[in-house]
Amino acid sequence: MTTYNKTDLRRAVEAAIRAPSMHNSQPWRFRLRDGGIEVLADNSRQLSVADSGGWAVRIACGAATFNARLALAVSGTPAQVLLRPPGTGPEVIARMTPGAPRPPTYREQDLFTAIPRRHSNRQPFWPNPVPSEVRAGLIEAAKAEGCWLNLLVGMTALTGFAEIANSADRVLRRDPRYQAELFGWVHAEVAPDGIAVSAGGPRPEPQDLLPQRAFSDRPRAPGRDFEPEPLVAVLGSVADRPIDQIMAGQALQRVLLTVTSAGLTSSMMSQPIEVPAARDHLRRSLSRSGAPQMTLRIGYGQPGRPTERRHLDDVLTD
């Protein structure tokens, strides 16, 4: 019978905690059980205002599941993954047990090596266009996880999206409870979770096409406006049940790692997803069935560094 050793399992959890989460809240725990790993939602880290329904927790835990899957595949034993296993509580997001051993594919190795290099880049990108073959690869990455990815091309589509995103951003900015929660996760010093002030983008200005979260009041350098025609992607799922949101989290991470492995960078914009009316408007504007789950800005940019993470022993239970 194939089994994972303790080193394989710990390496999988080390990869999992590098997943993205709203405000870097890291709403997950991991449990080693019966020779495999369970990914658990940590509801004590759920954002009570921004994520009262748990959507962002499930997206984050899905992304963490994908990272763990990659690590186990690279170890030579891909996992059999069961999402929301029957007979467990809603906090159990996924269970991974050993599958048939096989050598990792080149693609799995590429994506795995991208995990420590992936991070959100909130700075202006360079105007260089993203090649068509890379765009096609991003669409295929989402499709491989049972989701869809729309790339918005042309200023008509971008302007329409910008109107939706900015409208949602204004709604959230007017909510004092939302803003207090957001800034409660912003840190001036290095911390094991949350957003460092240094990781935020420059202060928003009227000419910006897309909304930026005001993590700091730092002005931008002269001549460093945001790109005039960004590549915007909308990631969606075929439905909007909790299991679909977990699948979208896996698709999101596959897309983000595909972006990183191609030498690109990205940032996430969740405002159009967080406001229900904006989310429905976005879905209708795309003429898509299912539900948008995340929007992304993708391009070439100045390298940065990933945010901090909690220690493995703080999130892992044997």
Helix content: 25-40%
What's the CATH first level of the largest domain?
Alpha Beta
Helical run tally: 10
Structural class: alpha+beta
Level-2 CATH architecture of the largest domain: 3-Layer(aba) Sandwich
Q: What does this entry look like structurally?
A:
It contains ten helices and eleven strands. The model has no long low-confidence stretch (mean pLDDT 94). The strands form three sheets. The chain has a five-stranded mixed sheet. The chain has a four-stranded antiparallel sheet with strand order 5-8-10-9, with helices on both faces. Strands 6-7 form a two-stranded parallel ribbon. The protein is of the alpha+beta class and 318 residues long. A hairpin with an 8-residue loop joins strand 3 (79-83) and strand 4 (92-98). It folds into two domains: 6-116, NADH Oxidase (3-Layer(aba) Sandwich), CATH 3.40.109; 132-299, NADH Oxidase (3-Layer(aba) Sandwich).
